[in-house]
Amino acid sequence: MGLYGVVRYHLAPPFILLAFPCAVQVLAQLGQGEPLEARALLVRALGSAFAWTVVGAWVAWAWLWLRLPARTVEGPATLFGYTPVYQDNGVLYYWASLVAFFTAQALWPGLSAGLWAQMPELLGALNTTALLLCAYLRAKAKRRPEHPADRQPPRPAAYEFYCGLELHPRLLGVDVKQLTNCRIGMMGWQLLIIAFYVASVQRHGFSAATLVNLLLQSVFIAKFFWWEAGYFSTLDITLDRAGYYLCWGCLVWVPCLYTYSSYFLVAHPPSLGAWGAAGAAALGMAGILLNYRVDLERQLFRAAPRGQCSLWGRPASFLVVSYRDAAGAPRQSRLLTSGCWGVARHLNYTFELVGALAWCLPGLGLGPWPFLYFFFLVVLLVHRTFRDEEKCAEKYGAGWEEYCKLVPYRLVPFVF
Ligand SMILES: NC(=O)C1=CN([C@@H]2O[C@H](COP(=O)(O)OP(=O)(O)OC[C@H]3O[C@@H](n4cnc5c(N)ncnc54)[C@H](OP(=O)(O)O)[C@@H]3O)[C@@H](O)[C@H]2O)C=CC1
Ligand SMILES: CC(C)CCC[C@@H](C)[C@H]1CC[C@H]2C3=CC=C4C[C@@H](O)CC[C@]4(C)[C@H]3CC[C@]12C
Question: Which of 49, 221, 262, 325 is the most exposed place for a label (fewest CB within 10 A)?
Fold first, then answer.
């Protein structure tokens, strides 16, 4: 095993497992403009009665919505022959959660300010919940794997804990990834930024920049629920396993880092004026809609019989590529070479970054903190580009190489 292997399997996972939960507590404390004090950090990380009540109610609400009778939708079949089934009530769940939140806010006017003030406690409670869930998922995968054909080669324990072992585990009758990623993480992001907006208006009064910060993210999140079925074909679901990276990430990292620009603006009101806010809104809407457009083109293309669909007013062009499933049987797939997927291989990531930068812009002039999410996303998406391409090269071999020749740029045409 070379140096890369030692870092990847032995050094990076324990570091991330220890450093990220600490980073979350530090960020929450700093975002409130509070000095860092070891004892306070530790005590607040244990949670509070309020924080545990919120987390308990939130998890129960999300779980309940996945247990309600609803239309179902199938995800892509795995190479080991399993087709996951998901509840297709994301849009209804999104609106119902908003109504429930605003009702709770009307009944308890201090709710939003309380959520902001107790964010370190909330993250502490989420952290404990997420770590327990990851430990349970690992133990379950070792003792009672749901799909024995999906066995992973044994790796160091911290690496297994970090990456997860099972692709589609279920818990209490629901799909774990749909619960943690879509229903708790994404909706938690939405509700927290609304709470932070309300807390900010209660403190400083109305600001166009703060409103733009909220609205852009809300459009992005609402779009996610509109497209939830499409999410089931992404890397998170088809490649990444249910472990710390995804489950802890969606239960703790998303509520902390993805909401951070809004969280930060509560203690540090923005100085961006109305015209600046309007510019950020226009840039952000363009980024979000174009990101959606790229994802939609692939979804329409993959759903069309034999890839026969029209893109940009012309019949889509594509490559027919071959691969083998887990049983070694030959299969075929198609890679789009026209529309957005003919411009760059990951144009959806590029537009995602534009949208994210735009909603961080209201924090301009307040230092790097409001841009933390954007910086993280650059690293995540560049790394993800390489991970995805490694997966595709392995899966399609020469077919992928041919596609890369036809579409030579990854994120930005003529640059990268
Ligand atoms: N805010 C955030 O934290 C993040 C947001 N995202 C967003 O999530 C969405 C999904 O992203 P993600 O799952 O990473 O990846 P993509 O949606 O880009 O999907 C990549 C997969 O698409 C297939 N594919 C690749 N090239 C083509 C082609 N030319 N034609 C047809 N299919 C192709 C391959 O899968 P196959 O095996 O099926 O061929 C490949 O593995 C995007 O909008 C992205 O911006 C993603 C990551 C983080
Ligand atoms: C080091 C780790 C703790 C990092 C954890 C990262 C995860 C929380 C995120 C990794 C990929 C992210 C997502 C992928 C695709 C998405 C679709 C988009 O439309 C909405 C956002 C998201 C669901 C996003 C959510 C966070 C990740 C799972």
Answer: 49
Q: Give yes or no for residue 393 CB within 6 A of ligand 1.
A: no
**278 domain-assigned:** no
What's the pLDDT score for residue 369?
A: 96
User: What is this structure's pTM?
Assistant: 0.95
The half-sphere exposure of 163 on its side-chain side, counting CA atoms within 13 A, is 17
Domain that holds residue 398: 291-416
Mutational test site, ligand 1, from 190, 234, 341, max ligand atoms within 8 Å of CB:
234
Which ligand is the nearest neighbour of the Cα of 225?
2
Question: Does the C-beta of 293 come closer than 6 Å to ligand 1?
Answer: no
Tokens 């499409």 -> residue: 230
**How would DSSP label each residue in 173-206?**
TEEHHIIIIIIIIIHHHHHHHHHHHHHHHHHH--
Same domain membership, residue 53 and residue 147? yes
Q: In the structure, what pLDDT confidence band is assigned to residue 154 with cuts at 50, 70 and 90? A: confident
CB atoms within 10 A of CB 133: 21
For residue 251, the model assigns a pLDDT of: 98
Residue 166 in tokens? 């099972």
Pocket test for ligand 2, best of 27, 250, 348 (most atoms within 8 A of CB): 250
pLDDT in tens, 168-186: 999 999 999 999 999 999 9
Q: Is 341 in the pocket of ligand 2 (CB under 6 A)?
A: no
What Cα–Cα distance (Å) separates residue 185 from each residue in 72, 91, 95, 190? 21, 15, 16, 9
Question: Residues 182, 251: one domain?
Answer: yes
